[in-house]
């Protein structure tokens, strides 16, 4: 699958990140046509004045994107939010905007914010890349000696680091490569680019901006020339001859405006074919030649740009030497030269393959939430909520309907429910939310009659069926059975048994699964994991454990995972023995026989399942160890306590229990469920109904 975004950032000031940006845009443009640039965090000044770098990319590559679409926050805003705990706002907003761009363009190049010797900049960049799940291209200045430190930080963030570009380095590639192999994994491809005078030296227009100098002779089109070197001719004594021997191409002359002898020597040397062309002449100290002499200067053929500045000669020379140059929209020479350098030293087929290959280890909470909201909005499923007296249910239904994610039927007395809605000030979408009273419903007679015919062979009497159908769980489940709703969510007030019992009686299990079980989606800080079974089967047999494993992997797959399943135990591989370990071992073999393509490992301990180092040590030949994302617990006691411990200690969101194995989606809630829990369970139920 093609990945249509990449994230570029640097850990140094003046690393030459623009070279990589322009080069990659040019490379991708050869294969894709509709490209976008996205810089989530920009400088404060870019709100009032357009960021010249972004503008250069847009104009040079003729991108069909508005400038306002290319960023989210100023650096000051991002640092403030980051400092005071508003990280989620940063990442959520960036994530949504990036997804919008991904949906509209063939390829989005995402640029990290510039580095200002602040570790928060590195952390912000890696966090953004992680939340967007993009492969990272890191650009470093060749003078940086902290490659190992930077890599260690990136590795801890669990991001997909694919390419390192070391810019402005004179170290031979083979020597650098032998050094880097000590620290970098083999999948990281390294490229080196040598220093380059054309990119490193300022243009005349950059020098003019530095001093706010006035152009007294010449055209603005002459200001894109590059000054490779400069000479301070004012330091020559009046009786000294001009040192013509040092004149070369792209020389900048700095002199006071009253040194007519040096100005004339410069103009004459520039005309001569024996010497290189001079880039420009700067007149310092706010001193200008007489008007008559200026007119003579303007008439000289092959004239050069002449600037007048207010600083003295010494300050001018010092500031020229310290100018930090960059590729800008006004200098196509530098921009094109950076592309040429990239093509010469970096671009190759492997680079394109690394950038566009889909490779990420985890689904992040942002991506998980985005995907289930998107699918629910498209599906527009109808969910029944039996517990209409609970205000958490009413609030969750309000949020769900207000976002246009589907339709809701709430069971209960309409007058009482609406009185509660009004007293709480809940926003209510009447077109999307229906309130239905089972007692007075036109469906009641049909429902109890259907239940009687379905269960009479089990000894159910008609009067019992009538009474059962007054139970909101039975009524809601029958709505799903009859196709009047696509799924049901209950359990905020009722027990798990009350929610599941009607479903087991007439919704029943799928033909390919003998065991009804559950999973939780655990939304950790940087990834989403699947835990099962944590709510239904107290002590499963090996066959039941295999059932739970297979259906849990299928559920995970339905929600965008590439399942890697770990059947957990207190030992890994063949290191331990005992009844529980043997049960897990047998279950694993059953799974491998029934689902040979599924990546599964068991028995395995939790640390070996999640930690690559531990996994490699304990099970070196495993495809699951160290990277599992679906965890199957050997029995309910362990599963239920583990999910609650992880939820509380990491302050994570646990969505579930999500019931699996039924013909139609019926989902249970914890009695301590929050509004957010219920809202997410509605989303999950909607997507389950698509699959069913």
UniProtKB/TrEMBL annotation:
Primary location class: cytoplasm
Keyword Transferase: yes
Domain Phosphate acetyl/butaryl transferase: 368-685
Domain notes: The N-terminal region seems to be important for proper quaternary structure. The C-terminal region contains the substrate-binding site.
A single MF term (Gene Ontology): phosphate acetyltransferase activity
Functional pathway: Metabolic intermediate biosynthesis; acetyl-CoA biosynthesis; acetyl-CoA from acetate: step 2/2
Organism field: Candidatus Uzinura diaspidicola str. ASNER
Family according to the record: In the C-terminal section; belongs to the phosphate acetyltransferase and butyryltransferase family.
Role this protein plays: Involved in acetate metabolism.
Gene for this chain: pta
Record protein name field: Phosphate acetyltransferase
Enzyme Commission code: 2.3.1.8
Domain DRTGG: 206-321
Record note on quaternary structure: Homohexamer.
UniProt key word Phosphoprotein: no
Cellular localization per UniProt: Cytoplasm
GO cellular component: cytoplasm
InterPro entries referenced in this protein's UniProt entry, alphabetically: DRTGG, P-Actrans_bac, P-loop_NTPase, P_AcTrfase, P_AcTrfase_dom1, P_AcTrfase_dom2, Phos_Acetyltrans/Butyryltrans, PTA_PTB
